[in-house]
Design a protein that fits this description.
294 residues; alpha+beta; OB fold (Dihydrolipoamide Acetyltransferase, E2P); 2 domains; eight-stranded antiparallel sheet; five-stranded antiparallel sheet; 42% strand
Length: 294
């Protein structure tokens, strides 16, 4: 009975202490992210963009990169179409993802339709989600889609679905935007640095494993989807899907021919994707990023 009482007392004391410690870490992390965002205004700024005028689609990718610590960066991706826009921002410090902002606006094609605006913020510490916030509003057609005055509501972490996949998707996006800066990968290899997507021995539960393979590049196959084709060092053919969250397709297509039969290193993972041609969700082998080996 005394043992049980002791366990109950310990639990009653430990839970508030653990919650307080977690709250303190989140507060510190929020301040750290705010400081990095403020500093990033003075960092070198890189922009990539593409558009589909016929489809009314525009995408912009922005990266603000620390001048000395090249894997400390802020990235922002804008996707615009006729209905609205999706904005994804990330803040990364020394290759570690700290923060994600997802902002969506949507205006239906109806007269006097209101514009819905939602914002979600996620904070990560050592690959773990430790804070989540959201806010939304429905605005009249003559009002700018600005909800900065709306208060953020903290979300219980257990209500955030697939937090492991959320982390992996956005660390890939952050690294993809940052490592695409010309000359970055070569300079990192000279300094014996390497961006780590997910440590093989310490993968967050439920996240797809990122695999690294070396081989010879054979070209880009164009069809309903783009595919990166290569032959591995073991002599096996490997064909990887290329998606919007991965390497920039336009830049890749421009340089693909001159790199045929060149040695390369790729990082890929298995993902479930909605492919209508395959009658819905299908597991595919998907390219995360690549680098050329001299």
């Amino acid at each position: 009975m005394k043992l049980l009482s002791g366990v109950i007392l310990f639990t009653a004391l430990f839970t508030p202490l653990a919650q307080a410690e977690s709250s303190d870490r989140l507060t510190t992390l929020v301040k750290e992210v705010e400081a990095l965002e403020n500093e990033s205004a003075a960092w070198p700024h890189f922009v990539l963009s593409k558009s589909d005028e016929e489809g009314g689609y525009v995408q912009e990718r922005h990266t603000w990169q620390h001048p000395e610590h090249r894997l400390t960066a802020k990235t922002r991706v804008f996707d615009y179409d006729d209905h609205g826009e999706l904005t994804i921002e990330t803040v990364m410090k020394e290759g570690k993802l700290l923060y994600v902002l997802k902002r969506r606006t949507n205006t239906p094609f109806t007269e006097n339709a209101k514009t819905s605006v939602t914002e979600e913020r996620f904070y990560f510490d050592n690959k773990k989600l430790i804070g989540a916030f959201a806010k939304s509003a429905s605005l009249p057609p003559d009002q700018k889609p600005d909800i900065s005055g709306v208060k953020n509501e903290e979300l219980p972490l257990e209500q955030v679905k697939n937090s492991g996949s959320l982390f992996l998707t956005h660390v890939r996006l952050a690294l993809s935007n940052t490592t695409r800066i010309p000359g970055l990968m070569d300079s990192l290899k000279k300094e014996d640095e390497s961006p780590v997507l997910v440590d093989d021995e310490d993968e967050p539960t439920g996240q797809p494993k990122v695999t690294q393979v070396v081989g010879t590049f054979k070209g880009i196959e164009e069809g309903d989807y783009y595919h990166w084709n290569m032959t591995t060092e073991k002599g096996e053919d490997l064909s990887l899907y290329i998606w919007e969250a991965g390497p920039d397709i336009d830049s890749l297509l421009k340089e693909a021919d001159q790199h045929v039969d060149k040695k390369c290193r790729v990082y890929w993972t298995k993902q479930s994707r909605n492919i209508p041609e395959a009658d819905g969700n299908t597991e595919v082998e998907e390219l995360v990023r690549y680098e050329w080996i001299k």
